[in-house]
Task: inverse folding
């Protein structure tokens, strides 16, 4: 599927003399989870220093920035933030660093708090002021509340106030703390370096880069502390009292193929989905081609199952950046052509099965199909390795509005006609869930089914401030 | 005198279609009050937008930045911040924009709050969190406090909590508000454009640039509101109950020669100081030369009074920026030589009176004297148009420590020997005060006399956070 | 194979109101041929304007640079230049623009002139001066020579002086001219837009982006002129008198999979090479995985031929840029891990065939193999879709020295041991040539065979100036 | 006078371990002669390395650029180039570095060659190609001509081909060479550091910065070589056969007040001009004020001679950079107000003599006068310390066209009316020449008198290329 808005990635490590540098490499591996901004906070045991910036991690921490090559702090956390098509706000770059009565704390957050507005309204009524417009800042306000500070487990107490999806990594001056919401909606896992330092990351691919070993997931409702005593764990809710709701879309699209999330490998799940898709929606065709790169795993599965040869119909360009031109020719077609070149020789005169992981708006898919037609494909059979996306997500996936979703209000026939394909086939929800190992009800499938883990009658206010506050420290040119 | 740390400058305007652009030009005129950072906040009547950045106003708002050329908002405020020699923190750039229960507010502050640490400690104990390390953020916390919001005059109530020097300009979504501390330590004045819009600025020179007319000062203890009803005024302390303490160092060094502050023109005051200096410390010499540019006014006065011809002994370079080289020759001498070139022809074989406005550390002065000697001056008589600076300022002037002040622990003879001059003469405090129009006790002369307007037994903690928090969004290169 | 130094790409178009913009998109498609610098020269029919810069085309022509969005000139040429690991020289960015007695001319060059040093020495002896150190400048000197200017076909006369590989695109004030060396070493082809404008490009993939149609190659020894009369052709050598020597490495590695070069599709050739490789070097294995992206085509062929399932063992990161850190862990391993993540699930406990298009140094290949071992692969069978690279190229491919080439002085057994694989198999030269359509002797295979099309007893001096002249106008950061 | 286009500055030094760094500081002192671009070329005895860039020297050689802090080469030359209001061309930045049959040479040039076009046409007819559009490149072409290379004194032979103004500094791999045209139109002088290294600079102020001592001028028609044998001299024309033509406008406006040029101090000459101006054009007034900074020297002289008190009526801002805004209010007035603030107190109710060094267009002068009127000056007497500028300069001063010159076609009465002053008085040519020490006919006064040292029937073609060629490597933003 074409990239729309994405999620975030978090990382943390304690007890490594190269903690800052390893955080950099860890974030690099998590870059697919967000390219808008990046940041690292680290502590020397006493003081926390934080550096954030707009753009990809390699740009933010380019030579001389952020003291990355000099800091020898033994603990650090980092964050990459999703990219948006429009305006963005540097004040929202994370980690969020604040100071309260107990000293400094930095927070990196992946997910979405559905009661952030409610809590913010309440704290503003208490006289609190806010600087950013993201839902992470409220967590620090909750932590700073005197009655909360006085609790036996202040952080656990605070987390009980939060509703929604949150995989959190905190940096205090002397420790790294990780926590995950009771439903375990977003992934978060633990690793250990060859040198014995514990680390935490959104996906296990971050461990591979720093030669660390995957240990296990942070459990839903668990708080894990990494400090001078090693790793310790506690729960802020009674374990097992709610059924988990792991985001199935992580497996379908977000996570990197090489990662282990929710206990199993992403590529394997996607390949199984391709097999299942071939069983559910066979096609009489000459070749199977993926929409690279996210559709490749499923396409391999589809080809294997169907016996139709796998081939490359598209070549992806590695040099796509922002293009400022408003070309006179149709923008959609051009964007597709710049990113994906068709190999005419492969598809000319062929009946082609095109496999993608998912379809959101469908506009770029339409462009790709059109390119194949121009190149001489005689039949095009669109196969999608998940069900039709038809509902909003309140837990951190930034889909367009229902009206903009291809499957929002269209029948399958209308979708087929819109895309101008010969046939279209979506994987069924049951079929999809048959490809993962946990019980079906342990996954959140709300974007397909409309069934949410938490009640949605809460008014989820987007902060109105976001559109207006632009306290930019510098523009991002790239 | 050589530039050390300097103060800040503030500006505000209401009811002009070019409010944002005029704020830019106003800040440009106030640039001498601070070159570290600059920022402008403006409102369209509903939402406030704020753009700040590191460096001079022309750099921060260079082409395409801050939407300066596009915003047609009818009200705006701006700020320029003092430069420091060492590290700086972009999070401290002003205006400070925050949101509380009554909506958005932006604040620009010139001065120093001596009880900021106390108040911050108190609010942290209430559970508040802080993002910046400057003393301006606490003002918004005070404004946000529910019991304060409920007062009849919430802002007046809040200002009564502040101790120290503050010339403040606030931007609410629908109005600009200016306020000045009860002692009127820092200047703040009102003007009106040809089109009838009211404006407020640290110095009247900001009005000249935008063809506005100087009206009067904002009175000590006064709150002035500029809104759709024009200008309205109220007092938050009973007027006349304390004797003002206008900072005499503003006249001596900070303010621009063309400005009117504390009711009279700066250049005229300095020239009178030069006359008085000649009367107090005559010299048997051939020429009078200023240390440009800040010593020029006094030197003209000295020359006129003494009858000794005025001439240019130094030429100031207009192209001094940051120099990154660590040259092998003595840094002090080189810095002086890059900035001030001696005209050998003028001083060779001459007995020279050198007039400067003030001396702080004395190191660069020593370099200048040395250049004159090299160029062949036979006698050098140093004349300083204010008394010896020997005490710290708690109201916004960032002097070095007493140990670093030339007059901190040296006798006049020691100063003469240190500077390697033939004679040295400082203007007396009485002499200096005879050159201004208000009663002697209406001025703060603490940096010379050690007598403060407010008790100094308060522990003035610098925030420890400043040294450690470096949430930089971008480096400033130039 | 890992990217070493690469070649260049050229583009030209005449008679399109969006000539400049289409050149930008054409260069974008050719970006894989060079990322060091980019440039566009265009003419309004009278004057030529040229803008070049360091970095990728999207960076060089980012918003506001090069007037890209404003120029409506009807003709333009462009160039992308290869990237180097070390220093680079902005003066060598192309197109090269010069002025001589016949007016302005801009030149874009792909290839390498083996007699450039000889000619340069000769012209320096005539009193000519040189500004750049690339071999393109000498072409303009030759064109400017009065006796050459006087010839019936001045350009054809000049081209007869050149020895080596050259695909050239010239821009004169009123026309675009393309020429290709008599051996046709580098590719160069003609296309036509939907609007009827002729264009020329290194590879046909540049036409796809601008919705142009591929017509044919520029023939070896041909000069093609695009002007107001359309397309006209002439030859500067008698056609057919020399056997062509198309660079086979273009098919193996350089060219984009979607391009047609030397008359056939690159992906198809590579896939055939994979089939042939499977026939020559079968393996008893569980899966076939490519080294993405350049090994993918051959891996598909290998899998199809062998019947061993194709799978993804590596995931390529799309966010690799320059990394400034000198990490303490082994650099080679880290570079591999940042760029290619292993999908452990796929290779664990498996006997794996790894297919790459070619191996140059072998160091990164070794790193990739090591990653697979760590992930649990039980056997690794390395298969390379071309013969061992063992000789230098004098026609534009910038290989390392023979000593640095993996196959430079190693036997197959030594290579197997160096890479730490179970077996290694290279495609034979005959096998490789059986996968392309032209007669075997129409290709240059010198880097494998050591047999060159032109005598190599010529002293190919690299210009000594290059190392020393650094007339940089700006550094390139990203 | 307001800055229009300006000249250039050159510097060279041989035999100092900090040659590169001292060239940087020397250029810094010469910055007033050009702010458009800067460059330094240095040699390690074998190879020349050159770094140029757009903008002021501090920007071009900011941290990390040009290897300034690392190069320990024993010889270097440098150049600062004039600023233009409009487009500029980085290819014209100097030193110009080229390679010819005798190796590398770098050239820095101050002046203007009136036969550059003729020579360029001739060399293009010989088959030479040109990269830049400045008149310096032709010098290297002349040097490279084989018949010139063979001469006994090749450089002297080449210089005899040049007509116009030229103060040149060459860097060969093993020596620095300085030369000045036979009329000595532009200044060029020799100095020696404390360490004994010889240096050469446009003005002696460059020596002051690096603690070098002024020795003497390079004589008209002299070539000075600085190499391992120290300083040696020869003449390329018979000395004394032509009367010199030192540019009097250097004394009036260009040169720094602290410099010695043409054998005497600039400030002293200007002050004498002020005395003479007071004798020729007395005024019945209350105060004398300068237009800072260039009018200050003359104003001091005027005040001394007339007995009317000297005062500051204008304060110059030190923070003027480029302003991108197109303000709606009158641009001229705003530019004046941003740069010069009037001290109302000084001029209110006064009869004011305003002294400037010269008037070119007169538009900004008109703005300044208008500011004084607004501030309440009752009478304004404009006094100009040189005659009316009415003719173009062909030797390096870039005046506007005659139609744009205030005195181009206006009578004194018309000038008075245009400026809206009460009286206007220009210094007479004889009066001006009475203030310098050499015989009257040793100066060029063509811009006032229209009498040139060289015949002007030569067609002085501006190169047409300049407007069109824009091979920018990077834009200059600041």
Result:
């Amino acid at each position: 599927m074409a990239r729309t808005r994405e999620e975030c990635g978090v990382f943390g490590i304690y007890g490594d003399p190269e903690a800052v540098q390893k955080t950099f490499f860890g974030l690099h591996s998590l870059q697919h989870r967000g390219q808008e901004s990046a940041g690292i906070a680290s502590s020397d045991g006493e003081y926390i220093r934080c550096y954030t910036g707009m753009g990809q991690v390699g740009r933010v921490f380019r030579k001389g920035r952020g003291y990355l090559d000099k800091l020898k702090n033994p603990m650090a956390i980092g964050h990459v933030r999703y990219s948006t098509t429009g305006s963005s706000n540097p004040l929202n770059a994370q980690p969020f660093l604040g100071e309260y009565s107990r000293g400094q704390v930095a927070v990196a957050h992946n997910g979405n708090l559905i009661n952030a507005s409610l809590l913010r309204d309440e704290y503003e009524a208490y006289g609190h002021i806010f600087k950013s417009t993201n839902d992470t800042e409220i967590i620090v306000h909750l932590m700073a509340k005197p009655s909360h500070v006085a609790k036996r487990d202040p952080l656990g107490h605070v987390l009980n106030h939060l509703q929604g999806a949150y995989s959190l990594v905190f940096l205090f001056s002397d420790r790294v703390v990780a926590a995950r919401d009771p439903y375990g909606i977003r992934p978060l896992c633990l690793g250990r370096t060859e040198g014995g330092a514990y680390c935490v990351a959104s996906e296990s691919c971050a461990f591979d880069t720093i030669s660390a070993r995957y240990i296990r997931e942070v459990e839903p409702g668990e708080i894990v502390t990494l400090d001078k005593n090693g790793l310790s764990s506690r729960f802020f809710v009674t374990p097992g009292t709610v059924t988990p709701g792991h985001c199935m879309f992580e497996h379908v699209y977000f996570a990197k193929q090489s990662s282990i999330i929710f206990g199993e490998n992403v590529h394997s799940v996607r390949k199984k989905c391709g097999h299942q898709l071939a069983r559910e929606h066979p096609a009489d065709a000459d070749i199977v081609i993926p929409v690279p790169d996210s559709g490749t795993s499923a396409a391999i599965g589809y080809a294997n199952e169907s016996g139709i040869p796998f081939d490359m119909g598209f070549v992806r360009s590695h040099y796509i950046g922002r293009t400022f031109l408003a070309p006179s020719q149709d923008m959609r077609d051009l964007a597709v052509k710049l990113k994906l070149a068709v190999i005419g020789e492969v598809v000319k005169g062929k009946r082609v099965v095109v496999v993608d992981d998912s379809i959101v708006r469908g506009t770029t898919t339409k462009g790709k199909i059109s390119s194949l037609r121009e190149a001489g494909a005689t039949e095009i059979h669109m196969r999608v390795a998940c069900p039709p996306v038809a509902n909003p997500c309140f837990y951190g996936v930034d889909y367009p509005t229902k009206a903009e979703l291809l499957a929002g209000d269209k029948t399958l026939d209308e979708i087929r006609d819109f895309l101008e394909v010969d046939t279209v086939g979506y994987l069924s929800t049951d079929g999809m869930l048959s490809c993962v190992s946990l019980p079906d009800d342990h996954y959140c499938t709300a974007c397909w089914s409309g069934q949410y883990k938490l009640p949605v009658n809460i008014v989820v206010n987007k902060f109105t401030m976001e559109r207006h506050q632009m306290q930019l420290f510098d523009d991002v040119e790239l």
Q: What stands out?
A: The longest strand of chain C covers residues 103-113. Chain C has two domains: 9-245, 264-317+327-449. Chain C touches chain A through 65 residues (CB under 8 Å). The radius of gyration of chain C is 23 Å.
